[in-house]
Design brief:
The structure is a homodimer. By secondary structure, chain A is mainly alpha-helical. Chain A has one domain: Orthogonal Bundle (Farnesyl Diphosphate Synthase). Helix content of chain A is about 75%, strand content about 0%. In chain A, strands 1-2 form a two-stranded antiparallel ribbon. In chain A, helix 4 packs parallel to helix 7. The longest helix of chain A has 28 residues. The first copy, chain A, is globular and about 60 Å long. Chain A starts with a helix and ends with a helix. The mean pLDDT of chain A is about 95. Chains A and B meet through helix 4, helix 6 and helix 7 of A and helix 4, helix 6 and helix 7 of B.
């Protein structure tokens, strides 16, 4: 069973051996840049660790695991254009450091590179890996579209929000884990459990992100705290608060949302207080816990000894515990 | 042997049976739109006709042929953003009719749909089809990057220009023809000939486009005549003219290029006269002819009876003759 740090080593090694010193440099430089500014490589490591539940030779999962990582980074490049984001992982985004066209075209090339890596999958399992990847990639686009739609839309329900993050975030986590099962030629039932495990922990990851943006204890989280509040981002916390029956507090929250001139720190503090009065932190933690627990119910059903499951279990738990 | 019109029927049929009535509509509507505003479907038809050189059953080529058409349309969506184009095939571009983000994300989804169609290739030939497609798709991005670089660069050589159009245009024509050979399980020599046939006629197509933008006899060409001249586009004609030893005419041309206020019709007429005095139309026709002839030398080497080659020969010749 491979540990996270062992998988991370392999992935970083593979990333630095990608032949990206090619011409035209204007196309490949932004790709090298986005891959070099870090990231925890969660998805490829999940794929590898999932594969290693069943098999000690990880050869056949490396191509698709790398493909998933490149695809994920491609989505970051394009999302940053669409969101007009200026900072990513504490570095300037490609659309800022270069320009928008560079981010579009280098992103396109990255998606093709992702497929080139996926195509390295042994032929007997290639169709299955490819089908899941294609379906997932399309769902991620659908999720991004919903996310953009929500920006212009005033009344989003909590259910609609959960469907959006399922598509935008959770399905790629689910597909990473399932891909590891496919490349290890696991039983189809186990592949299904891996997928559902991933879907649930993917939901938990995203809700945790929403939560930590407001309630993290320090700044290790990478983004400045309260950014979602300042930007009126429709997160679970905000939607849940807006749905409350306490009309006074809802009205107060709406006032902050519509106010055009404000002191950001004051807005963050005030909205945090509203959230706390509405018991939103607790409700969010409960929902995270629910997804986390459901995920692990599927994980437990996988027909593999507990001993082999230790590393993957540790890794997923560690991701969730990072800032609590 | 399938005729162009038969192939076109099949492709149009397949296009209209793609299930694109999905949600979120904001993602899928621009895809339906770009596919509905026409185009001659040259690439998928080349793939099908190439396949039908060797085989009477076209089943296995349809997936990749459709994938190539979707990929081609994806490149149009993204190129139109990067070029800030407002009109495509006489209709408003997606970035104008919707907005830039819609064009980015719907383009991304189209590329994934392209891969979904490619993935329908029978498993025994899938790796070969996928490898060629991946390599070609990356080259098309490289070509687009070079094209963008050239806009900002003052001295492009004719050779650099030819390399750019090889990547941006010719390799996809080449890959379309080679893919038909691969799906028909043709001999590797014949697949190579098909590729080289396509590379040469692809070059001829693009040079013909450059030529017709200035010298077409009527407006059926779709774009308004002289658009490249007005926009100072670095086409073969312009680069060849700038390379001339007639310093007076080169200087006159440069004056038109740098002039900021001008009457477009006057500029077009004046530059046309310079081109004619420098014998550029004839030189362009000669180069087109050279590529066309080289292409057909490879076509002739393909180990298939002349009878089977008639339709493909007719189609390629027809494309080239469209406006002469």
């Amino acid at each position: 069973m491979f540990s996270y740090s062992k998988c991370l080593d392999i992935i970083e090694n593979q990333l630095s051996s990608l032949s990206l010193e090619k011409k035209p440099i204007e196309l490949y430089q932004p790709i090298r840049y986005i891959l070099s500014i870090g990231g925890k490589r969660v998805r490829p490591c999940l794929a590898m660790m999932s594969h290693s539940l069943f098999s000690d030779s990880v050869e056949s999962v490396i191509g698709p695991a790398m493909g998933i990582e490149l695809f994920h980074n491609f989505t970051l490049l394009h999302d940053d254009i669409m969101d007009n984001a200026r900072v990513r992982r504490n570095y300037p985004t490609v659309n800022v450091k270069w320009n928008q066209n560079a981010a579009i075209l280098s992103g396109d090339a990255m998606m093709i590179l992702a497929y080139q890596l996926i195509s390295k999958t042994p032929i007997n399992i290639l169709p299955k890996v490819l089908d899941l990847f294609n379906q997932t990639a399309l769902e991620v686009c659908e999720g991004q579209q919903l996310d953009m739609n929500f920006e212009k839309c005033l009344d989003i329900s909590v259910e609609e929000y959960l469907e959006m993050i399922r598509l935008k975030t959770a399905v790629l986590i689910a597909a990473s884990l399932a891909t590891g099962g496919i490349t290890a030629m696991a039983d189809s039932k186990d592949i299904e459990y891996l997928y559902r495990f991933g879907l649930n922990i993917g939901m938990a990851f995203q809700l945790q992100d929403d939560y930590l943006d407001v309630f993290a204890n320090n700044h290790q989280f990478g983004k400045s705290l309260g950014g979602d509040i300042v930007a009126n981002k429709k997160t679970f916390l905000m939607l849940k608060a807006l749905q409350s029956s306490d009309k006074n507090l809802v009205h107060e929250l709406e006032t902050w949302i519509t106010r055009e001139n404000f002191n950001p720190d004051e807005k963050i503090e005030s909205v945090k207080i509203i959230y706390e009065e509405l018991n939103i932190p607790e409700k969010t933690r409960q929902l995270i816990e629910t997804y986390f627990t459901s995920g692990f119910e599927f994980f437990q059903r996988i027909h593999v000894s507990d001993e082999r499951k230790v590393e993957l279990c540790k890794f997923v738990t560690q991701i969730m515990k990072r800032e609590h």
